[in-house]
């Protein structure tokens, strides 16, 4: 069996040493990188070859990659790197890595074309001045071959243990057994469809209610499929921490590590499992910066990485605490050790953004290493909003004004240029907007973006010269500007470019610019295409077309709904059609809602959740309720609750407790919380959850109407009802639960709304 490794991965393994140095390097945008490569190639002669596929073998290693360019007339092989700022400040270990890459390519080229020697060039292109700096040297084939062999030898022991691990892993997964005596009702069917999706290399959407055992029911068949489908990696991607926790717990049951296995009868499974944690949670020195001059865990990071990596893969179970322990024992940063281990673990559990966002590490690794990857996307209904967020960028003129007051003198002029362009844009947008404060622009404002580009280049230069002088506001503005610039380059009809105007001091108009994604499909589709298979699952993943269209799933993606493990008798559903919760009708609705809740509580005392469309509405009903029914305990969700306050809110739902928790729909208590049995006996939902009608949502409606012909449904109805069903879904968590749901609004009686409620609910007998 041979071990495939990309040239870049090989060199990163063998040729990196010294500090981790993420010093604010002003890297070019992706478009600038592509344009830079094209520019260099365009300057070469007619016979210049681009993207030359090269491959070679050494012992059990198969090395492959694409060299940037070869000029046959000069016999020169080029590795092109785009950059901004001062090239002299590039750390030595970066340069060493670049040389290692081009030398390996050189060796492979000499082998392939039987060259006796070749000139190797590192071509550094300054994307601002478009000037090239060439560092070149001629090497004979024997020297390059020796270098290649040395790199391969250095890597070989690691590759051999990787191959051995893969073999043991696959044998263990072949023999894997479901950890419980049997599947839950409908769980087997779900597991079979997931196995089939992995077997046929497809995407699959699964709507399955809570309680069916989705996490175990999707992980088990995917792990089973790994050996037969020659899957390299499984990525379990979740929107929130509880989803990741459930996955890690399910994995511990399915494939016990040595410690867990020793406690039970099971044999340990040689599976490497990594939990990815956000940088702000994993960082040990939040007051420092990620480079060796500031942080002790960055200093000498690459010198100590090999031992830390070896210890981590031996351990195999790399949840946050274990990873931290290993990292600190070896004096390296836990966050960046986690990033490194994503290359070497079989199962990675992390947030959506690690695979789906613009710079997603797991996606980049998948493409670079040509991995066969299975994706499991937990609570996938969240991916629409999360996807939009990943491809949206904002910039506020107020932040620019604040910077102008504090920025170093070297940045005053470029800041002033940006301010001038921004003022001009406000004038144009203000004229077009008339009395409104919101204006959708025809496209990205190129003059302002040009000025912003000049500013980011100036900040980059300034930082190169004063590496420690950048304050956090300037750095934040810089990063926000780069993000906006990147999305502006990718602007298309999937997004809006808008300006929201407001009055500043002394009558000046200020604005907030936003490149706002409406349809994330175009960005997410390549992510799904790069995976061997993808299963998206949720209790609320319908209608199928809505998710298929917005997420960019292939047209043929099947949508399956699992039979509910719950029966209609478990849940009394009442559609209260005598009350309207429309904005204009809210004052009149307060007393009827309060009375309805009190009546239900008296009939069946216990813990209830009541959901409202906003904090204002929640407070109005809560105040009326407290005044009219003071003997019934109530507690409220408030804005910006911290972790402890959220926990205290949930602790009021004791099994022997009584009272009503007031919450907002779509907030922290509307999904992802588990209050089984008597902890929650009913819910009231006094809203359809429709997003607020405002200029932005109205633009979404228009854009979605143009693209899919269902503007109102896509912008308002489907997202609203999805939240209602999630909230109501808090009541029945197991086949033993009993409870009630009151859906309070006359529109719940409309057939188009009723169609979006779960099929297992009995709507026939809700005669109120
Ligand atoms: S510990 Fe924090 S500051 Fe240090 S390298 Fe890690 S993330 Fe950066």
Please provide a written account of the structure.
- The protein has 768 residues and is an alpha/beta fold.
- 46% of the residues lie in helices and 19% in strands.
- The chain has 27 helices and 24 strands.
- The strands form 4 sheets. It has an 8-stranded parallel sheet, with helices on both faces.
- A hairpin with a 5-residue loop joins strand 5 and strand 6.
- Helix 1 crosses helix 3, helix 5 packs parallel to helix 6 and helix 18 packs across helix 19.
- It is globular, with a radius of gyration of 29 Å.
- The chain binds iron/sulfur cluster (SF4).
Distance between the termini: 69 Å
Low-confidence stretches: none
Overall geometric form = globular
| Unique bound compounds | iron/sulfur cluster
Largest sheet: 8 strands, parallel
Strand order of the largest sheet: 10-9-11-8-12-17-7-18
Report the mean per-residue pLDDT as an integer.
Answer: 92
